[in-house]
Amino acid sequence: MTIFYKLATLMYVSSYMPELPEVETTLKGIKPWILGQQITGLIIRQASLRWPVTDGMSALVKNQTVVDVSRRAKYLIVQLNHGSLLIHLGMSGSLRITEVSTPWRKHDHIELQLSNGAVLRYHDPRRFGSWLWSEEDHQQLSHLGPEPLSDNFDGARLWHIAKGRKIAVKPFIMDNKVVVGVGNIYASEALFRSGIRPDRSAGRISQKRFDCLAGHIKVVLAEAIEQGGTTLRDFVNSQGDPGYFQQTLDVYGRAGQACNDCSGVLKECRLGQRSSVFCPVCQR
DNA sequence: CTTTCAGCCTGACGGC
DNA sequence: TGCCGTCAGGCTGAAA
Predict the structure, then answer these.
(1) Domains, chain A, with CATH or none
(2) What's the burial of A257, exposed, middle or buried (CB within 10 Å: 0-12/13-18/19+)?
(3) Nucleotides of B under 7 A from a protein CB
(4) What pLDDT, in 10s, does the model give residues A178-201?
């Protein structure tokens, strides 16, 4: 009875452009509903995601129990008795907990049905996301760099890896082998707070400035996770918008507008096929 | 080895 | 009003 009362509030766990904080928020939102539950069914309405959804996934997961739910980089890992699901939200994916009777929306592709009556619905208009199955370790996780919020990610490490490399610092910190979970938004914001131009060659940045950058990456991500948590509480009450909309963004999406520090005009350039906004005065 | 780039996909938006 | 081109973006794998 309690579960259905809670479900009636339709707890949304979603995000517009899932970066690490949005994935972490999603993890916190779905975990209490699916951990320890038995999987009673898996419906695949659209198997054509970033990679085709593993053939026979429904049969493989049915009757198994969810023994853990965790995050690595921007991947969510749903660990079962034998094997695990690796879920990536791509560019536009989102997960929500709801009921079987909830009408399907356009772009609802997959539904994981659980023994407590809850279902996990996967929604992804652009279908850049993925649902992968493996009985063993997932290949996608095998060559990832450190988690940005962990102690083994710091300026010294960045400086060491950057030595001799000519790549611009922004695509450098967005490289998953360097550090995971730093997407375009947070890379742009962390570089602004650190006063580093995004097009500066990574190999020509001092360790001291990398200390500053690593620190700001941690702070920017931690702040966003904190706000995601706030948003999640709002969502439980059926209100609110996805996390980072509420966040103050100094540069991302603000090309041509005034710098929040010096009031100069923010410039835009392209680095590694990604738009990059920065202040040519504050960032050197 | 490092770096670049096409491709996957849909919705939003601007120009005509 | 609708059509068409462009853009957005994480990630992979192939090419340079």
Answers:
(1) 5-139 (3.20.190.10), 155-278 (1.10.8.50)
(2) exposed
(3) 2-11
(4) 999 998 989 999 999 999 999 999
Contact A259, A188 (CB under 8 A): no
pTM of the model: 0.89
* Amino acid at residue number A141: L
Report the distance separating Cα A127 and Cα A125, nearest Å: 6
Q: Which amino acid is at A77?
A: I
- Amino acid in the structure at residue A65: T
Q: Please tell me whether residue A120 adopts helix, strand or coil conformation.
A: strand
DSSP classification of residue A280 = T
**Whether pLDDT at A14 is above 70:** no
What does the block give as tokens for A169?
Answer: 């610092």
Q: Which residue has the tokens 């009362």?
A: A5
- Distance, Å, A233 CA → B6 C1': 41
What's the gap between Cα A162 and its chain centre? Answer: 24
Please identify every residue of A annotated as catalytic.
18-19, 74, 274
The owner of tokens 């994981």 is A112
**In this structure, how many other beta carbons lie within 10 angstroms of the beta carbon of residue A70?**
12
